[in-house]
Structure prediction request, 590 residues.
Amino acid sequence: MGMTITQKILADHAGVPEVKAGDLIEAKLDYVLGNDVTTPPAIKILKQLGTGKVFDKDRVCLIQDHFTPNKDIKSAELCKTMRCFAREQEIKHFYELGRREMGIEHVILPDNGIVLPGDMVIGADSHTCTYGALGAFSTGVGSTDLACAMARGITWFRVPEAIKVILKGTFNKFVTGKDLILHIIGMIGVDGALYRSLEFEGEGLKSLSMAGRLTVCNMAIECGAKNAVFPVDEYTLKYISRTNPKRFATSDYKIYTADEDAEYVQTIEIDLGDIPLTVALPSIPSNTRKAEECRDIKIDQVVIGSCTNGRLEDIGAAAEIFKGLKVHEDVRCIIIPGSQKIYRYALEAGWLKIFDDAGCVISTPTCGPCLGGHMGVLAKGERCVSTTNRNFVGRMGDTGSEVILSGVPVAAASAVLGRVGTPDEL
Amino acid sequence: MIVTGKAFKYGDNVDTDVIIPARYLNSSDPEHLRQHCMEDIDKDFAGSVSQGDIMVAGKNFGCGSSREHAPVAIKASGISLVIAESFARIFFRNCINVGLAILECPEAASSISQGDVIKADFDTGIIENVTKNEKYQSKPFPDFVNGIIRSGGLVEYTKNQSGI
Prediction:
């Protein structure tokens, strides 16, 4: 029987010719990822297991991004634990804050050319599913799985069933991958793809930039998916030729395509032209609405950034909208470039000047406010339009605060308008 | 293995941000996590839960973040079993790895009320509602998964198995 892209990657890494949905396999991992919240417990577990060394110091990525620069003493201890471990193990992909390679984990693993098509990655962070945008398999796990994977470079999986998403048409102006994935989550619900993979195809792919695809895959977890994956095309190849010229030049990557007779438990067809600028109202990502229907909702804060929407294209799109405009007097607008490289580019392109002139806060790369850590925690009764990925109760602060999810154009326009709004109103 | 306790009942899509809010993830100490478990949807939980009690919820329990701190917080609270209509994928895997017993059973999830006394047998998958005098059948885990849970998690199980 035919296999999906996900099934083929799993089969190859398990060293078997074929897998089918429901099979339990052990597979070799190309990269294993942890962050400052999930790695310290994993280090403790690794020590309990009596393992001296990680399986490959060049294939374990330890990224400090959640509570950095450290928000309090306890989080400083977490980073210290991780830093000491990284030094002791001579971890290649551990970067100090402020260094050019540094940033939010799911922004830098693709942008720094670590993950390439066909790679198999697990990370102790639920948004590890981001790298499917490159034609890789990636999924989130917890700290115990991280520890065992750091020790062995192998983990077990249940081979998932797949949902095929066929994209047609082209996006309307200002509509992005964020609107697409919010639309899908609104359509199938927060458990609509539970345990399954989402596999994208169709002529509509041409409307999705790499940044857009990374955003779509990033939020696949918000409909319960195990992973999401895009086929490799000329956009992917162009992207990896820049992020990792060496592996690109030597064709050190693998392109997988789905078989004609691959099995899908569900097929969803979407005309990109039908997708409006979309928001998800509190307190679940499936609570989606047309942004234009929410113009009476006043806001106190806007966050533009995160592993979902902190990429170069996102920060550039925000600058384009803020040019010559001011943030509304009742709003704090926090801009968080996803990496130091993006920060530097934004500096040289004059984007930071635009943000500063508009009255925005410009932050160093961090997950910070997305999970209510720091750099923009909300008080009771406050409301934020955010380009992040979750709007659960208390996600960004007090349980009486609210998060409305959107793409960058709606978030930037809302910052100027002081309420939920769209860029055509400016 | 049989457990008995009173039920704490919740709805659908209980996410890991309410099980243990991110503001408390600056430590992974079970005692610290226990004190804040469920506090954003049930302020009274930490104060009223007793050793052996059972958590019951609707579909997609544990959705959201991959934080293993969530099942650790529930386990440290004394909860002996979580019954739900369905579990989010990463949470499901994390529960087994940290040795928190879970059972998927839509019938039990909808029939059990807050405070009902529940008795469950992991080996047979039979869940008994002592208060309502009802029985529900869930699909039991294979022996090795029950072995992991009995050992207290994957680490202890691995140590036992490899004689460390």
The interface with chain A takes residues 13, 15, 17-18, 21-23, 25-28, 40-41, 59-60, 63-69, 71, 86, 88-90, 93-94, 97-98, 153-155, 158-159, 164 of chain B (CB under 8 Å). The mean pLDDT of chain B is 95. The two ends of chain B are 25 Å apart (CA to CA). Chain B is about 35% helix and 20% strand.
